[in-house]
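Action item from last week, closing it out:
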Amino acid sequence: MYTFVSRIRYSEVDSDGRLTMAALINYFQDCSTFQSEDLELGVSYLKEAKLVWVLCFWQIVVERYPRLGEKVVIGTQPYDLKGFLGYRNFAMMDEEGNYIAKANSLWSLLNTETGRPTAVPEIMVERYVRAPRLEMDYSSRKIAAAGEGVAQEPLTVKKHHLDTNHHVNNQQFLDIAMDFLPEGFEIGQVRAEYKKQAFLHDVLLPYVTEEEARVVVRLADEDGGTYVIAEFLSGK
């Protein structure tokens, strides 16, 4: 497993001094980015090769939220590459190696000129050494909600939502969705199914379904399509 060591910063904690889900997702995203950069398969390589990895699915399971100043180890490992798809685990651990959080993810490799999926090139197959997938309860990629949900105020994509691929970053989508969680809702698990990229000035239409210990948020486009649907399960 590729790892790096960090310490929970003040800018990453909530009002109780614990790491936020948004910050945890950023740690995971940074970890895979660091690995790709170290393997010379990072942002510059992808741009030159006219390729982009697009996240299709997240499942993140949290055992606990580390506190301000705590030292942590963040790790990632790809466990399969099939056609144009990449499967990757993530983990955050404490100094003793105990798991704080685990994640599963599915990515699709696209050609930036055509916008279509493209087979993973041999150089990636060679350099991304696969490992057995982490032990965790793997959930389905498909997320169902009871009904359409309650419509919320539309949001417009701003510059700060974008990443180097010039679309809304996967963490930013979830940050928007988490704004609709009830007060005091502690996330034990999040699943997110990404269906469509969003770009600057696109309008996101949120629909929220609340059930017992479960909230589903769908961010739709103006034609009724879906950008992302996210499910949050309470950890309490």
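Closing note: The chain has a mean pLDDT of 93.
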